[in-house]
Amino acid sequence: MKDKNKIETFKFALKKSLPVLFGYLFLGSAFGIMLYDAGYNWIWAIFISLFVYAGSGQFLLVSLLSSGASLATTAIMTLFINSRHMFYGLSFIEKFKQGKWRYPFCIFGLTDETYSVNTSFSTVPENINEPHARFLISIFDHCYWIIGSVIGSLAGQIIPLDFEGIDFSMTALFVVIFIDLVREHKGRLKSVGFIGIGCAVICLIIFGADRFLLPSLIVTVLAMTAGKPYFTKAKEEK
């Protein structure tokens, strides 16, 4: 029975991670091509994707490496760009802790896309080991990114490719997941998503496209905290 549960858990995690696969193959390839153009071969693509694994932070890293930026500058810039992950992690601390020894890697692997997949389901079938499923999703997504990076690096050596606009594939992924979440919830809980949209739009107008992300996350967290009694009651009614 345990072996069967492991197989079902593996299938569940793989199925949930598949949307990220297609996005990461394209985006990872774009990173690999940029890295190759900067003078670093596919081996560097593997090591950077394996140990840094910061998505947009990796694209920034290529520019910083090319410009000869200092280690301090690189660290500070990466911290600011990926500070949003702190908010992601807060909402999954308790769930990841259930995985015990898997906990550190789940935190390390919590990218934008992995977070979106994890929020796309709140419950799992009884025959699924939830902590292990979330752990496997993190592993699958990480592997997808590494594979994409290597493909891009190798392709950059062979044929010229134009990846302009390919980053929109991840935006499309977020939109689809968001729509599914809104459709899944009923009544008052539907307002959660629209609160997030409202906060993002207001912060976009105030701070501009380059600086709105972190403030919008902070405002959204504050709004959700203030409305906790309302949403808790709505969840009970559901």
How does this model look, in words?
- By secondary structure, the protein is mostly helical.
- It has helices spanning 2-37, 42-51, 56-67, 71-81, 84-90, 93-97, 103-108, 112-119, 130-158, 168-184, 191-207, 213-226, 228-237.
- The protein is globular.
List its traits.
mainly alpha, 13 helices, 0% strand, 238 residues, globular
Outline:
The chain is mostly helical and 238 residues long. Helices cover 76% and strands 0% of the residues.
How are the SSEs placed, and which strands pair?
Layout: H1 2-37, H2 42-51, H3 56-67, H4 71-81, H5 84-90, H6 93-97, H7 103-108, H8 112-119, H9 130-158, H10 168-184, H11 191-207, H12 213-226, H13 228-237
Distance between the termini: 33 Å
**Helix count?**
13
Structural category: mainly alpha
Question: Low-confidence parts, pLDDT < 50 over ≥5 residues?
Answer: none
Backbone CA Rg: 19 Å
- As a percent range, the share of helical residues equals over 70%
Q: Determine the mean pLDDT.
A: 79
Main sheet properties: none
Shape: globular
